[in-house]
Every structure is written in C-alpha cells, then in structure tokens.
Write a structure and sequence with these properties.
single chain; binds aspartic acid; 8-stranded mixed beta sheet; alpha/beta; binds magnesium ion; globular
Length: 459
C-alpha cells in the first residue's frame, strides 16, 4: 500500500526500505555523543549492528552556542569579533578532522567540507546581517557533524546514506511541523535508496513555509527525531544523551536521584516542559500521536536501561519532581469578576493576542493569578489588563512540578506532597488540572530547599 509517497503496511506502519521484515528505528544523538573524534568513533560501534535505522545527529557540543555568538556579533556589527570566533571554530573542527580519520582520502574530503562550510560562513558574515542569514549560520553545526560522521562511516566501510534534512523537514506558517509534507518527502527520500538500512540525517534544521533554511529552536534535534519517527512510523525512537534516562528529581540540585524506568507520554511531556532538561518540551507529541515508544538512553553507558516512554501509564504513583525557573506571576483582581461570566475570557484573550502562553492558573471569586515564562510582551499585557482590573506582577519565581498519575478516586497525594513541603512558603497551588501534575509556585531562592524536601518526602 502506498500513501503520500511512503510505504505503509496497514496499521503496522512503514517498513524499513532495506529490510522488508523489520521496521526502522530512529536514534538521535546529542552534541556530547558526537562531541569529539573519540566519541564519534564510539558512535560508529554503537550504531553498526545491522538494525535498520535513521541516525539523527545534533551539532558537536558547543557548536550551536558558538554560532549563536557569531550571529550576535554580526547583529552588533562587530565584524572582527565574529571573524575571530569563526576562525576559532574552524580551528577546532580542523583539529577534530585531523584526529578523526585514519586515511588520507577521508581527511581530504573533510578538508574540502570545512573550507566550503566556513567559506559559506564568511560569505554570510559579509554585508548586512539578517534573520534569514542567522538561520543559515545556525544550520552549519548539524551540516558539519553529519558530514564528518558520514565520512567516518565511509572510511570504516560501513554502508550508509546521508539524508539531507532540508529536503524533507519543513515547518508551516505557524512554525508547526508540516506532517503531510514530511511524511511524503521522507518516504520518497528513503525510497531513493533501496536495500540500504543505515541513514544519517541532521537534527534541528528544516525549511520554513517560504522555503528558507530554518530550525526547530534550541534543543530541537529531539523534535526532529520524534517528527521523523512519526512520519515514517518508526518502530521506536531512541534519544541518546549523556545521562541514563529521565531522573526523578533534578540531578544538578539533589543527590541520589534515580532514573525513572517507565513514563507515560503525558507524564514525560509534563516533565520535559517543567524543567527536565533532557528532552525538548514539544518532542513527545508526535510520538504520542502515532503511539511510538520513546526510549531515553545514555551513550556513555549503553547497557543502562534508561527510560521508556509509552502510551501506558504505570498506575497510581508519584514519579518525579521537576522545576522551571524564570516564572512571573500576574495577579488580577476585579470587583467585576464577582458572579460574572466572560471575565476570564477577557483576560485570556489578551494573552492570546500577545502570543504569551500561560503555565499555571488559580482563581478565587474575585481574583485570578496566573504565571508566564515569556516576559517579552509583559508590559503591553499589563497595560491592557489595567484597563479593567487591578494588576500585580511578581518575578523571580519557580514552578515546582510533581509528576505522576494522580487519579481523582485516590486519596492522599496532596497530603504527601504538602507534608513534604510544610516548611516552604507557597505562592500558588495547581492540583486537578490534569491527572499527571501537581504544581506549586515558590520563590526561586527556595527552589533547592523545595526539591530536597520533596525528594526526602516522596521517594
Ligand atoms: N544543535 C542544536 C542546539 O544546540 C540542536 C540540538 O542540539 O538539539 O540547540
Ligand atoms: Mg538536547
């Protein structure tokens, strides 16, 4: 059966083009997994097991940050600083290439690649710098890492195909993945290589509705992996990082955190959004829509079990705690809210107009408090709200989010959570919004204390 250009096998999904008996897997590797010649060589061993797969790579660690800095310098018209940063980056790549390959041929290819890509960077740096140029600059990291890695596979005699993500990854006018297009194009790109079972492609980069080079925002390689996994109906999507799965608390703050063996899509999405840095916040959705399992694995410890994210919930349980900083609370009070309808609509409509997402909401009869993390339009929002209510703004706050399955029928979750937090002053509480999340708002200065208290009390 052929649909939208990709082969489907009923609801069992697309089969790998190379091996008709197996479906493909998607394996995404982050910056540290390709961060040095040594890591790249280890990666060849890790992926070379005959299982049909598409390997999605990030830029080498530090590269995207360096490209962002170069773009900032160019916007600020500091051409010399930009040129210095670009030269330092080129030097770093030359050193990696010199170490990476055993033979002359691959080394020469890499030399030509670097000359061409860094030449492109210098061309982009000339003249007036624009948003379009910036996006082309940012795309260089993934274009470099995938090409260097592909030459390594070639040198080692590992049969593989480099798939250009700019040929099939596309976002629409609303910057959402254009799934119909991606399905059709990814399918036709794969179909060009019958009999092949190892594909490499760039994470993060895509084209926009105007056909220009664009990206899926920082950390977006995870999103590439799940979008592509959904598009080809992969058997499984693996996100390989340098930690052994999602942990039950923030390992940078709390000692003795443990990886969570299993999460539902909803639980994982809450955790990714509310602070677990290991996953891009929107990347769960495409996998969830097609019910494709997502596994979080550790390149430094490939044998570790990691975290498996599926459509199943493991039942009533408190699974994890996460924190999201940089939160601003807006308290809105109006006598007109008393027994009135339409008030909340009037409030929310303002946030909608300024494209500002709201994270937490609590209401009383005469007031509503809500939180945002994007302050870009805060002043304008507050000015409009002041047209019909009293407004107070409070910054420097953190949402602490407890994730699990809290079914409405079961008692005791709130008690356990607030017993643990009894010594922490709390600004807002949100419980019952979903079965997967209890959130509290605290001053950022109390975050550490709150995370430690919850760890002690809950796990
Ligand atoms: N290289 C991009 C970044 O650093 C995308 C990614 O790594 O996921 O944000
Ligand atoms: Mg990442």
């Amino acid at each position: 059966m052929k649909k939208n250009g990709i082969r489907t096998a009923g609801n069992r999904g697309t089969r790998g083009p190379g091996d008709s008996s197996k479906r493909m897997k998607i394996l995404k590797f982050g910056g540290t997994s390709v961060g040095s010649a040594e890591r790249m060589r280890a990666l060849v061993k890790l992926i070379n097991d005959g299982v049909p797969k598409i390997v999605v790579l990030s830029a080498m660690s530090g590269t995207t940050n360096a490209l962002v800095e170069i773009a900032e310098a160019l916007y600020a018209k500091e051409k010399d600083r930009a040129a210095g940063l670009a030269a330092a980056l080129e030097k770093k790549y030359a050193a990696v290439a010199a170490e990476l390959y055993a033979g002359k041929k691959a080394g020469e290819k890499a030399g030509r690649l670097l000359a061409s890509r860094f030449g492109q960077l210098r061309t982009l740096a000339a003249g007036k710098f624009t948003g379009k140029k910036e996006r082309e600059v940012l795309a260089l990291g993934e274009l470099l890492s995938t090409a260097l890695f592909h030459y390594l596979l070639e040198e080692k005699g590992v049969d593989s195909v480099l798939l250009p993500a700019l040929e099939f990854m596309r976002i629409d006018k609303n910057e959402e993945p254009d799934m119909g297009y991606i399905e059709a194009k990814a399918g036709s790109e794969l179909a060009k290589h019958p009999g092949k079972s190892l594909f490499i492609t760039q994470g993060y980069i895509c084209r926009n509705a105007a056909g220009e080079t664009d990206n899926l925002k920082r950390g977006g390689s995870d999103y590439t992996a799940t979008i592509l996994g959904a598009a080809i109906r992969a058997e499984e999507i693996q996100i390989w990082t340098d930690i052994d799965g999602m942990h039950n608390n923030d390992p940078r703050v709390v000692e003795g955190t443990r990886p969570i063996a299993e999460l539902s899509f909803d639980e994982a999405a809450e955790l990714a959004y509310f602070g677990a840095k290991i996953l891009h916040p929107t990347c769960i959705l495409p996998a969830q829509l097609r019910n494709i399992p997502v596994r979080l694995l550790n390149t430094m410890k490939p044998e570790a079990r990691g975290t498996l994210i599926t459509g199943k919930s493991a039942g009533d349980q408190i699974k994890a705690v996460a924190a999201k900083d940089g939160i601003t609370a807006i308290k809105i009070k109006s006598g007109r809210m008393l027994l009135a309808y339409g008030f909340l609509r009037a409030v929310f409509e303002i946030f909608e107009r300024y494209k500002t997402p709201i994270d937490m909401i609590t209401t009383s009869e005469v007031a509503v408090s809500l939180t945002i993390d994007n302050r870009a339009n805060l002043d304008a929002i507050v000015a409009e709200l002041k047209g019909f209510c009293r407004v107070e703004v409070d910054g420097g706050l953190t949402i602490i989010c407890v994730v699990g399955s809290f079914t409405a029928e079961k008692e005791g979750y709130a008690l356990r959570i607030f017993e643990a937090l009894k010594a922490i002053p709390i600004r807002m509480i949100s419980y019952g919004g979903s079965e997967n999340n209890v959130s509290v708002l605290v001053e950022t200065g109390l975050k550490r204390k709150a995370l430690l208290a919850l760890h002690k009390g809950l796990f």
